[in-house]
Specification:
It is a single chain. With 192 residues, the protein is of the alpha/beta class. The protein has one domain: Rossmann fold, CATH 3.40.50.300. It is built from seven helices and nine strands. The strands form two sheets. The protein has a five-stranded parallel beta sheet, sandwiched between helices. A four-stranded mixed beta sheet has the order 4-3-6-5.
């Protein structure tokens, strides 16, 4: 377990195509680093059966989301798979200023906005080992129709083309290897 030594917090941004294992990796990171704050995104999509409002996402209406967007409340926002997602600017800036490390699990569009607003952010892109494996993972979820899976796969190709915008890229072929690589990356910044 590492202890932070710098005055301002580190902002860790994790992105990946849907099904690459981003959420699983973030969950494991939070178990390893209980002192890191997890930035819970807002979304207009409906909760999945295993999701809890305020823990997995803040679920809000499209109207409420767009009203907050008009007021400049989002540090980043994006429309992904026909739904809106965003991060509270006030919560993010306040946490970092107080010296808390923050972990964000966001899409490529949001990561670009965060990098522009917080150039010191540590960005990590999680790659699937192959498109075939990604397709299998999405199918095993059992939460999406084939049409939705096909759309997610098309979006994955575009997202993976942007992996070079990130400071670090990890291929999630083996969960334990990927989590160890991610912990090593985070340790190198937390020790600064």
């Amino acid at each position: 377990m590492n202890t932070k030594t710098n005055a301002n917090g580190n902002l860790f941004v994790i992105s990946a195509p849907s099904g690459a294992g981003k959420t699983t990796l973030c969950t494991r990171l939070l178990e390893y680093y209980p002192d890191i704050l997890y930035s819970i995104s807002y979304t207009t999509r409906s909760p999945r059966p295993n999701e809890t409002n305020g823990e997995d996402y803040h679920f809000i209406t499209k109207e409420a989301f767009l009203e907050k967007q008009d007021r400049g409340c989002w540090a980043e926002w994006a429309r992904v798979h026909d739904h809106y997602y965003g991060t509270s600017a006030e919560l993010l800036s306040g946490s970092l200023t107080k010296g808390h490390d923050v972990l964000m699990d966001i899409d490529v569009q949001g990561a670009v906005q965060i990098r522009d607003r917080f150039p010191e952010a540590v960005t990590v892109f999680i790659m699937p080992p192959s498109m075939q494996v990604l397709q299998q993972r999405l199918g095993r979820r059992g939460t999406d129709s084939q049409a939705v899976i096909d759309k997610r796969l098309r979006n994955a190709v575009r997202e993976m083309e942007q992996k070079d915008l990130y400071r670090h890229v990890i291929v999630n072929d083996n969960l334990e290897t990927a989590i160890n690589e991610l912990i090593a990356i985070m340790n190198s910044y937390r020790k600064r």
